[in-house]
Design brief:
heterodimer, A: about 270 residues, alpha+beta, 5-stranded antiparallel β-sheet, 8 helices, B: about 270 residues, 6-stranded antiparallel β-sheet, 22 strands
Chain lengths: ~270, ~270
């Protein structure tokens, strides 16, 4: 398996916000594997933390194992499948835990998984946690929320500008661990050196406009940890009504998958 | 339940609860809110309510629909919005927040699921209210579905996460930073000496990329300077700062990439 620690620079920040007493978000990032996972849990008492914790721990550990076992010999479709499969496994684990333990009943979580592989980025998501791409000083939202609000925007009922004032921001139409089955939305995108990817929970994008996120990344791209801290701070300065989590990942150079033995032999004689 | 208060020249005529998905306003008797006045079109406007949101749409009326004095075609209603149709005013009053029960659960992310799927899933836990679909809020699109109905009594804390808490008002990202007085930086040395830079954005970077960069952030608490990149850290009033954000006071002198500049508050 390729070690991407010299290729991808990752930084994370998470904060309970200014209103909530505990943080139901879970995050994990591993530059060597090229994997970032973020989940925003929901459910009574601490069940939200449990759900997001299970999702992040399972997916990051098991995807890492699966990638190591495959030894880099995976095409894009196989990686996409892998991401979908592991989201389903996390769904089953959370659903089972919720069934078996009364205090976890009804818990669930959103999920966004980013996996860098062979010069592309595989993104899987469920719910309203997002992935953005910052390229050429422009910030672009890559994932589309599975939420009532997004459906209202899609159906033309309201505009994106009006959506900022909606009272229905917090209703997701898909989540991990709620039902016995879940569909993960998985896509691949070509990656360019210099791209910065932003994974966040809705505590960021509900409190900070896309324009302010773009300005922050444009101003502070030289210092990724500061940019992440600044994004969290802005969410809190604007009210911090929800837990806020941010993962920033910068791609430093291209990362083709390690070629097979034959290719490597050939390259020696070239 | 949100409601409209219909009034004419300051005197209230009646209250209308927004208890239907679609409420028509117009001159014809078929409208839920009938206003018999020639300035009002037959079918003048309509209000579509989905969960906690109400959308006002002008139905192509002859004389138009105003909200808070501005003509609209489509508008998402906010608490205390005043709709004007002809000489009549309709004040929109959003649902009151649940008394006693804290707003802790307000805005918590919740799953919106199909009732059939819910039934297919496991039995409901005892501490959650049964989720019969709310007949008054039909789905806005074929794919989305109404959430579980609210219990009649305020929900106990344990069940509240499964119930959409009534929100007192929509919370659009606030802009408290805008309340800060405008500040600026004036260059004191180097080729650009005398130049002034207004700090109009929440973030303003200073310095030379690749050599030394610092950022001035505008926050509700004031202005702060933070080191961004470079081996050297900025010097404020002759003292080098560390990696932490440093609050800026009026007339602080900043030294950055060999250039001196002064921070000052404009009035």
């Amino acid at each position: 398996m390729n070690d991407l620690s010299n290729v991808i620079e990752i930084t994370t920040a998470t904060h309970p916000g200014m209103v909530r007493s505990h943080n139901e978000d879970s995050i994990s990032a591993d530059a060597a594997t090229g994997l970032a996972v973020l989940a925003d849990g929901m459910g009574g008492y601490n069940a939200g933390e449990v759900a997001s914790g299970i999702a992040v721990a399972m997916i990051s550990a098991e995807l890492k194992k699966a990638l190591a076992a495959a030894n880099g010999e995976l095409d894009a479709a196989a990686v996409e499948r892998l991401v979908g499969e592991h989201a389903v496994r996390a769904n089953n684990a959370i659903f089972q835990a919720a069934q078996n333990q009364a205090q976890y009943a009804g818990m669930g979580t959103t999920l966004v998984v980013a996996l860098w592989h062979d010069n592309s980025l595989v993104v899987g998501h469920i719910g309203d946690s997002r992935l953005y791409r910052f390229r050429d000083n422009k910030l672009e939202q890559v994932t589309r929320d599975h939420s009532l609000l997004q459906e209202q925007i899609d159906s033309g009922l309201i505009t994106k500008a009006q959506a900022r004032h909606s009272q229905n921001k917090n209703l997701v139409t898909r989540a991990v661990g709620i039902d016995p089955e879940v569909e993960t939305e998985v896509h691949s995108y070509p990656v360019q050196a210099g791209d910065i990817y932003l994974l966040c929970s809705d505590g960021l994008n509900d409190m900070v406009t896309d324009e302010d996120m773009e300005l922050t990344l444009a101003s502070l791209q030289a210092n990724l940890p500061l940019a992440a801290a600044q994004l969290v701070q802005q969410a809190n300065d604007n009210g911090g009504r929800d837990n806020v989590s941010v993962i920033l990942a910068r791609v430093l150079k291209s990362f083709p998958a390690r070629s097979g033995l034959v290719d490597r032999l050939k390259s020696w004689f070239r | 339940m949100a409601k409209l208060i219909l009034s004419l020249e300051g005197s209230m005529i009646r209250e209308v609860a927004l208890d239907k998905e679609r409420i028509m306003i117009g001159r014809k008797p078929s409208n839920e809110i009938q206003i018999e006045n020639l300035a009002v079109s037959g079918e003048h406007a309509c209000i579509v309510t989905i969960l906690n949101d109400s959308f006002l749409e002008d139905m192509g009326s002859t004389n138009g629909t105003l909200v808070n004095g501005n003509p609209i075609k489509k508008h998402i209603l906010q608490n205390n919005d005043v709709i004007e149709i002809g000489k009549y005013k309709l004040k929109y009053v959003a649902e009151a927040p649940a008394a006693g029960h804290g707003n802790e659960d307000f805005e918590k992310t919740m799953i919106l699921r199909a009732p059939s799927k819910a039934a297919a899933a496991a039995p409901k836990p005892a501490n959650e209210p049964a989720p019969p679909p709310k007949p008054s809020t039909p789905p806005p699109t074929p794919r989305s579905v109404p959430p579980p109905a609210k219990p009649a009594e305020p929900a106990p804390a344990s069940a509240s996460a499964s119930v959409p808490a009534p929100a007192p008002a929509a919370v659009a990202p606030a802009k408290p930073a805008d309340a800060q007085p405008l500040a600026a930086v004036q260059i004191l040395s180097g080729p650009s000496a005398g130049k002034e830079l207004d700090l109009v954005k929440n973030l303003t970077t200073l310095g030379k990329p690749g050599l030394q960069v610092a950022v001035i952030t505008r926050r509700p608490q004031g202005y702060f300077i933070t080191h961004v990149e470079g081996a050297k850290f900025p010097i404020i009033n002759g003292k080098m700062i560390d990696a932490q954000a440093q609050p800026l006071q009026d007339h602080d002198v900043i030294e950055l990439a060999g250039v001196k500049m002064e921070f000052f508050v404009k009035q």
